[in-house]
Design a protein that fits this description.
The protein has about 70 residues and is of the alpha+beta class. It contains two helices and five strands. The chain has a five-stranded antiparallel beta sheet, with no helix packed on it. It starts with 8 loop residues before the first strand and ends in a 6-residue tail after the last helix.
């Protein structure tokens, strides 16, 4: 049985990618890329395992960079 912790990038049973936001016993809450929350058991999610999985979980660098503002000294 996998131990999923907050911040892990996972793929849920619907094929969507997201990040674990909470885990208690066998229940896991995942924040999906479309900002929905998926709730299910640990048996319904998995870690990305190959290139196809990784392409389903791209890092949205432009969105992250837009939130980071250069320091003004």
């Amino acid at each position: 049985m996998n131990e999923f912790v907050e911040g892990d990038v996972v793929i849920v049973s619907t094929g969507q990618c997201g990040s674990v936001i909470d885990s208690y016993k066998r229940e896991v809450w995942v924040l999906l890329r479309n900002n929905d929350i998926w709730v299910g058991s640990t048996g319904q999610i998995r870690y990305p395992q190959d290139e196809a999985d990784e392409s389903a979980c791209p890092l949205d660098v432009e969105r992250i960079e837009a939130k980071i503002k250069p320091r003004q000294d």
